[in-house]
Structure formats: structure tokens, C-alpha cells
Design a protein that fits this description.
Distance between the termini: 55 Å
CATH architecture of the largest domain: Orthogonal Bundle
Oligomer: single chain
CATH topology of the largest domain: MetI-like fold
Number of strands: 0
Length: 285
């Protein structure tokens, strides 16, 4: 049975159009891959360069240094405290900003983003000036802050909390208020609905906020340098250790400490993302 010439022409036209579409898609994805791959290549190249510059011996000698061991301990403690404080503040702020509408909300929202866009040195300088005022000096007579360990936590908290707030705001924006409203109609109070319904649904966002806060606190340098100083065995954390080792020309130790920071950040990100994926997989339907 012979085919209609018009059907043959139409079929050829459709096939030609599909072929051109596939070719266009291929070129589009290749361009995207080149752009994304160039940045990925740069990141990998910097890490490989660090790995080849140092050696296990440099890393071992760095770990044997009492100053670097102190910096590791203080970094772990301060980053953990900063993360807990950030979550303590970011969860209620994110919930309020997502659920409550009030005059001046856009201005308040913009203020919360200031630590993200400001240069870190400015944040450290602002903290230093704050504690030079009369209330700040009165507080320091009771509880020393400036150039002491509490200043390290406060400097990290000022920046890390802003990222946690932004993450929790986005998390609560994505959670439908319907389940919360149902809980209220069943007799729950607002606080009971929050703790029993909303917060469990936001657990992945909480994990993400904790990850960002911890990683950001670990890499914080500018505010700590200005507000806390970089005193050996006092306010020295890993980020300031890199600066101190560079200042004395010990580049090998600086690279070794940098690799420690990279390894710690990667481990935390992988652990949290793995747990987050498990929580999502095990979430009841």
C-alpha cells in the first residue's frame, strides 16, 4: 500500500525538526557544561595544588604544634556554640518572618541580610566600637568580651546567624500552613502546633541551616581578626592560624591548616547531607 506523498513530506519535516531540536539542545548543554566545568575545574585545581604543595610530614608537624592543636579545639568549640546560638535565633525569626505580616517587614528583612553583604572587617570593627560604648564597657567589667574567647563566638555568630536566618525563612515559606491550621482546629495551641507539626516538617531546613552556620563560622576571619585579635593560645582559631603562619613565612604549615579546614568542612557537609537525605527518605507519607 503506497503512502500519501503529503504524509511522507510531513513525516520528513517532523523528523528534521526533531533532529534540529536535538542538535540545538546538545549545543545548549555543551555550553552550560563548559561554563560550569570551568568553575569546577578551578576549584579542583586549587585543592590539588594545595595537596601537592604540602606533604604528610608537614601535616603531621602541624598537628604536633601546641598552637595549632589549641586552634583546632577552639575552632570546634566556637563553631559548635555559634551553630547552636544561630539555630536558637534563626528558627523563631524565620518562622515569624514567614507567617506574620507587619509594617516595616521589608526593612527588617533587609536588616537581617546586612551581615551577608557587608565586608567582614566592617562587622568586626562595628563590634569593636559597640563594646567601646558606655554600655559595652559596663558589660565588660562584669564579663570580658573583647580580645577574649567570647568575642570569637560573637564574631562568628554575627555572620553565621544571618545565613541561618535566611535558610530558615526560606524553609518556613515552603511549608504549607494548612497542617498547622488543622492542628489549631483540633485544639492545639499555637506553640503546640509549632513544636508538634511545623518544626518536624522543617527538620531538613534546620539541618541545612546548621550546616551553613557551622561551615561559615569555621571559615570566618575578618571579624575575628579585628574584634578578637589573633593571639596565640588565647583567641587563635584555624582561620587566624593560617594568617599567623603566613605572616612568619611558614607557608607549608599554612597550607596544612587550610587542608584541615577543607577536610572538616567537607566531612560536615557530607554527614549533614547524608542524614538529611535519610530523613527525607524515611519521612512518613
Amino acid at each position: 500500500m503506497s503512502r500519501d506523498p503529503m504524509e511522507t513530506v510531513a513525516g520528513a519535516s517532523i523528523e528534521s525538526t526533531a533532529r534540529r531540536s536535538r542538535q540545538s539542545d546538545t549545543r545548549f548543554y555543551v555550553c552550560l557544561g563548559i561554563l560550569g566545568g570551568s568553575y569546577l575545574l578551578l576549584l579542583v585545581a586549587t585543592l590539588v595544588a594545595d595537596l601537592f604543595y604540602t606533604s604528610p610530614g608537614h601535616l603531621w608537624r602541624a598537628l604536633q604544634s601546641s598552637e595549632i592543636r589549641y586552634a583546632i579545639r577552639l575552632s570546634l568549640i566556637s563553631c559548635t556554640l555559634t551553630t547552636l546560638l544561630s539555630l536558637w535565633v534563626a528558627v523563631p525569626i524565620g518562622y515569624l518572618m514567614a507567617r506574620v505580616r507587619f509594617p516595616g517587614q521589608r526593612l527588617v528583612d533587609a536588616i537581617f541580610d546586612i551581615p551577608i553583604v557587608l565586608p567582614p572587617l566592617v562587622i568586626g570593627l562595628s563590634l569593636l566600637i559597640l563594646f567601646q560604648t558606655a554600655p559595652g564597657q559596663a558589660l565588660q567589667r562584669v564579663f570580658p568580651v573583647t580580645y577574649a574567647i567570647p568575642s570569637v563566638v560573637l564574631a562568628q555568630f554575627m555572620v553565621a546567624c544571618a545565613f541561618a536566618v535566611r535558610t530558615m525563612r526560606a524553609t518556613f515559606d515552603q511549608i504549607s500552613p494548612r497542617h498547622e491550621q488543622v492542628a489549631l482546629t483540633l485544639g492545639c495551641t499555637r506553640s503546640q502546633a509549632f513544636w508538634m507539626v511545623v518544626l518536624p516538617e522543617a527538620r531538613r531546613g534546620v539541618l541545612t541551616a546548621a550546616t551553613l552556620a557551622w561551615a561559615r563560622a569555621l571559615g570566618e576571619f575578618g571579624p575575628i581578626l579585628v574584634f578578637s585579635g589573633a593571639t596565640r593560645l588565647r583567641t587563635e582559631v584555624l582561620s587566624t592560624t593560617v594568617f599567623l603562619e603566613l605572616s612568619v613565612g611558614n607557608l607549608e604549615a599554612a597550607v596544612a591548616v587550610s587542608l584541615l579546614m577543607v577536610a572538616a568542612a567537607v566531612v560536615v557537609l557530607l554527614l549533614i547531607r547524608t542524614k538529611g537525605s535519610e530523613s527525607s527518605f524515611n519521612r512518613p507519607v
